[in-house]
Amino acid sequence: MKSPTASICATAFLVTILSATVQIADADRFSLGNRPRLVLNPGKSLVLNRLRGGGIPSFSGLPIAEKSEPSSGTASIKLSLNYKVDGGVIVAVGPSSAFGNGDIHKAPKLQQKGGERWEAVVQVPLSDALVKYQYVVLSKTHRYEARIAERSVSLLGLSDGAKVDVQDAFRSPRPAVLATSCFTRAIFGRGLQAANVATENPAVPSDKLTWSAGAAGSDDVVFRFVVFAPRKEAGHSIWVTGKPAALGAWEPSKMVPMASLGSGLYAGQVTVARKDFPFEYKYAVLDAAGAEAAKEKDARKAALDGADPAAKFVVRDEAFNYPTGAFKAFGMAIPVSGIKTGDSTGIGEFLDLKKVVDWCTKTGLQLIQILPINDSGEDPSPYSAASSFALHPSYIRPKAVCEYYRDKFGLDMSGNLGWAQSLVDKLNGNWKIDHPKVLDEKRKIIDAIFDTVGQAKVLEDPEFQAWLQHSESWVKTYAAFKVQLGKEKNCNNKWFDATTWGKRATETATMVAPGGPDYGTVVRTYFVQYHLHVQLLEASKYAERHGVAIKGDIPIGVTRCSSDVWAEPNLFKLDTNAGAPGSPEQNWGFPPYNWDQMHRDGCSWWRRRLAHMEQYFHAYRIDHVLGFFRMWEIPKNGGGGQYVPSGGLREQGLKNLRAIQTASNMLICGEDLGNVPPEVGPVLVELGICGLKIQRWCDGKTWEYPYLNVAASSCHDCSPCRLWWNENWGEAEAFFGRLIGPGQQCPGGPPDWVSQKIIKMHADTSALLSVCPIQDLVDMWGGLRSQNPKGDLINKPGSTDGCWIWRMHKSMEDLIKEDKYNDFVRNMLKSSNCGRVY
Q1: CA distance linking residue 22 with residue 25, whole number of Å
Q2: Cross-strand pairs, 223
Q3: What are the backbone dihedrals phi and psi of residue 197, each rounded to the nearest 5 degrees, phi first?
Q4: N or C: which end of the chain has fewer CB within 10 A?
Q5: Among candidates 54, 50, 26, 51, which has minimal Cα distance to 40?
Q6: φ and ψ at 131, to 5 degrees?
């Protein structure tokens, strides 16, 4: 007869998922790391159906503590890790005193026990309840685990003197990128919609896991499985199955449930008789109906080799072995300004992104990469940011602002709606962007809409007030900056320091105070930024729900005439300009970052900036990521620059990039083109930051690219492929002979089949992402090409003539109707396994 303790933990710990769901529903919202989880009432009925004996295994039996009161005394945690180290040692560092208080030099060291096995025993007070740590290899160059998925061991349910054996696997940054919000919120998560969440693993904070569920006898072991499995479609769930009866004896209907700990981590727990070790097991993925969607190909083996004979608690921490190859996604690049829809007002607008998402769902694309969208004033360059937080007023849709007040407050906005439509009719036929005209027309109509609504009505809107309170850290300073900007006629462009103005940011409270002389202007500034926020957030959430990620762009600097410099001048080196060496030397005009000053408060400015961006984006591109290692700094009043710092680049890059990496859960992609120091690549890989590969600027073998990269056919700073082919015939001829048609004559044009070959190579890439400009994508179809490829150029570095005025020659509505072309793209991506989860 089977021991009553050698069973699923539900036998010993009668906490069903129903009660857990009730607890979570009462709390409304759990925030697990950067992934909020919603558990709504529909989940209860689904759980009830499962508990009534349906075909889907029950989620009951999760090791969830009813109370989280820690015990007194200590526990002994034995860490073991198999990892190859060429010189150096491994430490386990964490925030508690037992793990060095976050100091790698005070953290407990693991001892090498032969071969690649490392071990350490750490005594921890049970009062800690939850201990967190990560492994770091200390050698000539320190190597850190991926920081996205945090390690932890709960101590709840343990008694004084308990021994816990922890069998870990080093967490590589390569798979860890799939736990970023690019995938968990968008590509895989599809907006975390309630209907999907209801059939997924229940969300349980790590500090709620308990060992008391085991209640193990003298010959039993409580075995906790922790698996990193971020690659999971919305609505699907992770389970564990195996040979022992406690694991269901391989029966699909008796799989053991797992709880979601956030960041792609799942935990399940069983009690197994010691005599049943070693045993085989596998992890599996079930779809919303309970059918098997994926299972590991080879069985794993759980053993107690090397464990303390007195240890009754074991943690096995590992990564899911997916039966298919590495996941990859395909996306497209388009500046918001260049989007054209039937609702655009002479320039692309945030809400136009929804039509781009619709086209992506038609073609199988999973990511939209845009250029910076911050307020740059009258400068058409999106890289001349006058604020790192404020959005550009050109991207607002006046019609949607009218509809907001008509629908919410019942106001008569018919006159303004007619005006808004007349602007669409007037400006949308332009083949290029007339930035001054667009900005002026939108300023006039937005002012008119504000006057129609009235300042009092704007201010009494509770959603507006909630946004204003949430944005207070930047928007009031920005509004004061805009007020003063209008008064500083002689020094209000990007080459002049805002710090020379007659008023300082320290006077913001007075400048924006109600009843002040400029309060009307201040509220109008709030008004514009609020509706930009509402419209961009609507587009972002729409993209999420459709499995499409939005990738933003961070300029390497901000202009001297910016609210950032005005408010926090100490964060910038105002006596120098950033640039690049060469003949002639490039002077970009903006001040380099003062990293020493930034690190004094934990890079608070960066953390605020990225938290703000994360409202809208799932990934972001760092323009000129080399600037995080070193910057070419030129004296403000003369030439002759130099790199700063001149040495120690690895340490500089690690320190700066690690500081911003922990500020959000967005996927980070670095633009690492140009004169790249040898330290850059290894640091990006170590941190799980993607680099960039432009095919014509490397060996072009996309199928051999390292995984942590973005493969691109071209970008906004170079000619699209068709234009490049015509302008650089010699290079194109060599490219064709090497990668497309060896031994064949290179065709002119190029014809659409060549464009198709180029995009197919990017679909076949071995990189995580492939992001190709929309110009290169439509060039695959002869009937969709623009008449003149020269008109497809967005920017020509070093020149201002004709830059940043590009608009798509086809509307998104037209592209959506191109069924044959859309099917062609979808089938191409499918044949290359782009977007395949399992």
Answers
A1: 5
A2: 270, 314
A3: -60, -35
A4: N
A5: 26
A6: -110, 135
